[in-house]
User: Which sequence fits this backbone?
């Protein structure tokens, strides 16, 4: 292969390249480590990529694109699929006309997540086919395969990734462009697309029949492969674990599964029968092992301790030697912290000083839970700060309830806070409630992505802007905007006053993220320049018309 | 063949990876740990070798510990360097040496900020490239591959400062080797 055909790419970059080569019409998603760079790279390479307010909306937009016969790529981290699950379960019934590929990135070991849920269960539960690459070359190939599968079976296809696939770099050889984008047109098909019970009942049966057909065909799928070796040891594996297995046991015979759901059992049974000792080595839950054991195939699963955290070469070696003795604790590195000069520092110092009970949310500001602040009491999932704060207010004695504050970031508020705010207005606690929106003008934690309230697109171009302040004013009434770093005393007085009033109140603590501030100024300057340019053009045009 | 100069092949490694060079980069978010690892990966790639690189970022962008692994050779499997198998540990922050020391194999080399005189750098930010200059004296990667990698991984306005930093690193390593009678410390 010619050197120029080879590139050193991360898994995310490889997926973006495949999205270009596979003529993806629209890529959409919500930023989330480790999935974020897929859409950023797709957009930078000339693809149409956009951030959605959240994963559910992204998935719905993707369904619309695919309903028009075009190709959609929707990206998210594992917990994003919880948000989008409502769409997934029923679009599997309805199916698609074009292609809908859902890239979902799990984070075993939780390098930057609140749980280590295993997305493979979603494939099973939603009856959606799922394929899983192990490195960047496969990330590229499998993305193209997912587009082809989706188009052929008219089903959404889940592309399951993990941190080590997304963020590891390896060499990718690019396949040629596959030609032209599919033409789109609308054809009415109400029975197929309107999932009322009368339509959904046959749709469910149709889906199960399709899965059977896919399972049958996958017996010969090139997504699964066998690496021949010593018949004494057979290993069934998938994803990045495959690479650790190859290194830890180069002599073993390996069945590497790319097709995760539906799982064709016969080839697995034949593989297991052909080796003396057959192990299933997988990261996360014993998903493959449970399916294979349930089918009555004799395999050895790994000890329970390896459900937790990432696998690596050393842990695979331990599994091979059936070692379930306690592992040495990894040396503790330096934990992350709020940047020096971060405007959230003043916020959490104040919350601490006022002895607030803080229902927190997901973002950089979650670091307010750690010393020296220790000023966050709950954090679960996107948007939960508002509902949990309200629940605490409903149930705690008044003296404590009146100290409860919900704290949410700007991007998280747009993602999942709006419905919480509706609940706050609709079912107000008798002590009132204070919602603190930390507006730093960006999605800071994941690397400063734009969101609807910044008024700029993924590519930082001006677009419609959601006005958080106006929304809060319309919904709640009492809204203050303050810069807590410029005026820490004023901020403390304001928060104290709003808490004492025992009414519903929203405080927007607004100051741009330190890391994003210079970029934001440049985007604003560029946008102002464009406005001035177009104003000049209008004037010139006016002058021409006048003349 | 191995791509490491004057070092015994890693005895702990099985045959299949004995010809793989393992380098772990460590430091604090914002120091250029990941960028440094990108440069080495690009240099090895420019030499036509198989290369893999694994990193964890995200929360670590907020001043926490960062680690990035680069492995290259004729054939690389896992992207992560197993504990105790790093040929080189390149650490950008003195306080990140102890928590990463166990990654080094017996006889592996620690490259930390004490290797270079930082006052000779045009920018404190180019320490990552200076330590790459030290590393370069211990690897069989061509000057062309390094130069290409440095150009690819940085904006053009940084090229001058980085060339200088890389040279400072190389000179420091050569000087240290001379003082210690050619024995790698």
Assistant:
């Amino acid at each position: 292969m010619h050197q120029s055909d080879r590139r050193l790419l991360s898994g995310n970059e490889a997926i973006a390249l495949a999205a270009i080569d596979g003529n993806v019409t629209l890529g959409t998603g919500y930023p989330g480590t480790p999935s974020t760079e897929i859409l950023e790279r797709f957009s930078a390479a000339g693809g149409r990529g956009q951030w959605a307010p959240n994963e559910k909306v992204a998935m719905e937009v993707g369904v619309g694109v695919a309903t028009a016969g075009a190709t959609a790529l929707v990206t998210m981290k594992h917990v994003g699929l919880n948000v989008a699950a409502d769409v997934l379960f029923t679009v599997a019934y309805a199916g698609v006309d074009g292609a809908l590929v859902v890239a979902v990135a799990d984070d075993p070991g939780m390098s930057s997540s609140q749980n280590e849920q295993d997305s493979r269960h979603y494939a099973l539960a939603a009856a959606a086919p799922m394929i899983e690459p192990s490195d960047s070359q496969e990330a590229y190939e499998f993305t193209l395969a997912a587009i082809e599968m989706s188009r052929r079976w008219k089903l959404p296809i889940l592309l399951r990734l993990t941190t080590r696939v997304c963020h590891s770099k390896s060499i990718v050889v690019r396949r040629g462009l596959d030609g032209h984008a599919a033409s789109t047109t609308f054809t009415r098909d109400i029975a197929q697309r309107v999932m009322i019970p009368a339509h959904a009942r046959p749709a469910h049966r149709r889906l199960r029949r399709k899965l059977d057909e896919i399972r049958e065909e996958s017996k010969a799928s090139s997504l699964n492969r066998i690496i021949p070796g010593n018949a004494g040891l057979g290993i069934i594996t998938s994803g990045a674990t495959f690479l650790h297995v190859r290194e830890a046991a180069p002599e073993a015979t390996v069945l590497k599964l790319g097709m995760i759901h539906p799982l064709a059992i016969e080839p697995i049974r034949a593989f297991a029968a052909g080796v003396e000792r057959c192990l299933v080595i997988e990261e996360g839950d014993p998903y493959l092992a449970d399916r294979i054991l349930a089918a009555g195939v004799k395999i050895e699963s790994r000890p329970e301790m390896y459900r937790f955290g990432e696998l690596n070469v050393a842990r695979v070696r331990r599994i091979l030697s059936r070692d379930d003795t306690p592992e040495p604790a990894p040396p503790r590195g330096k934990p992350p912290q709020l940047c020096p000069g971060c405007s959230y520092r003043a916020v959490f110092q104040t919350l601490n000083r006022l002895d607030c009970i803080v229902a927190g949310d997901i973002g950089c500001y979650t670091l307010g839970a750690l010393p020296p602040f220790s000023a966050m009491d709950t954090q679960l999932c996107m948007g939960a700060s508002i509902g949990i704060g309200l629940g605490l207010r409903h149930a705690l004695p008044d003296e404590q309830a009146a100290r409860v504050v919900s704290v949410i970031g700007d991007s998280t508020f747009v993602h999942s806070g709006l419905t919480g705010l509706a609940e706050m207005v609709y079912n107000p606690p008798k002590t009132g409630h204070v919602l603190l929106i930390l507006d730093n003008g960006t999605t800071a934690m994941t690397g400063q992505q734009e969101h609807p309230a910044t008024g700029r697109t993924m590519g930082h171009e001006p677009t419609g802007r959601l006005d958080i302040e106006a929304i809060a004013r319309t919904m709640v009434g009492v809204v203050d905007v303050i810069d807590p770093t410029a005026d820490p005393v004023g901020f403390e007085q304001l928060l104290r006053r709003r808490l004492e009033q025992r009414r519903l109140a929203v405080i927007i603590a607004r100051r741009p993220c330190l890391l994003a501030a210079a970029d934001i100024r440049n985007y604003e300057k560029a946008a102002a320049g464009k406005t001035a340019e177009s104003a000049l053009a209008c004037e010139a045009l006016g002058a021409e018309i006048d003349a | 063949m191995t791509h490491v100069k004057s070092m015994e092949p890693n005895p702990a490694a099985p045959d299949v990876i004995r010809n793989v060079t393992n380098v772990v980069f460590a430091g604090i978010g914002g120091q250029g740990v990941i960028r440094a690892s990108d440069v080495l990966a690009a240099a090895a790639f420019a030499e036509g070798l198989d290369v893999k690189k694994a990193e964890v970022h995200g929360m670590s962008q907020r001043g926490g510990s960062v680690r990035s692994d680069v492995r290259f050779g004729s054939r690389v499997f896992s992207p992560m360097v197993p504990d105790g198998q790093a040929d080189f540990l390149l650490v950008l922050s003195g306080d990140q040496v102890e928590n990463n020391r166990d990654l080094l194999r017996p006889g592996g080399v620690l490259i930390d900020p004490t290797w270079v005189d930082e006052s000779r750098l045009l920018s404190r930010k180019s320490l990552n490239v200076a330590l790459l200059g030290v590393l370069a004296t211990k690897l069989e990667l061509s000057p062309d591959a390094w130069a290409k990698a440095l150009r690819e991984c940085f904006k053009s306005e940084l090229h001058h400062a980085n060339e200088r930093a890389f040279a400072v690193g190389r000179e420091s390593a050569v000087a240290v080797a001379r003082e210690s009678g050619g024995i790698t410390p």
Observations:
- The two ends of chain A are 63 Å apart (CA to CA).
- Chain A has a mean pLDDT of 95.
- Chain A touches chain B at residues 3, 6, 8, 33-34, 111-112, 135, 163-164, 167-171, 240, 243-244, 246-247, 250, 312-314, 331-340, 364, 367, 445-447 (CB under 8 Å).
- The CA atoms of residues 266 and 333 of chain A lie 46 Å apart.
